[in-house]
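Figure 2 data, in text form.
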Amino acid sequence: MTPERRDRLLSTLNRRQANLTVVLEDVQDPHNVAAVMRTCDAVGIQDIYIITTLAPRRKKWGHRSSSSAERWLTVHQFDNVADCVTALRKKYDKIFTTHLAAGAISLYDIDFSGSVALVFGNEQNGVSEEIRALADGHFLIPQMGIIRSLNISVACAVSIYEAMRQKTLLGHYKQPGLPSAQYDQLLEEWGFREEDLDKIE
């Protein structure tokens, strides 16, 4: 591993955030999933959750859209909502779904200083009633146009970039955000050998 590649990977890993995640429920277009993965990598999200109740689990997503982002992410796949929410509750304090419901708050009113999971539903029907019932609340992205919807990958990008904005102001990216065990595991998965680790100060 070259020093330049080592430094780039370490810089990326040191800015990964353990207290922010994206959940995709039955998103049908693999290119949408791949685009979301690419954006998650860009804002420092390491873990993403994919619920597939309408189709079999996938091993690969649209590489052209993701630029192989899935290689650098930890993808958790579930075939039912309840198991996924149980896993989320172990790591995240709040679960918000994108849903135009009475009482839904603005994206800009979400406090991203804590641990938050954002749930995005499929292209036709949005998030399911089941996961809405298990969430802590719902949020919407303020819009000024007639068509009150965005492509799933665009909606996700807008949302998690707001999270990144808040987390940047809070200094979350200035210190490693992953648990040490996960950090060490990713070092190995990302190809660090013993001689590479010896060069880490």
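Caption note: The chain has a mean pLDDT of 89.
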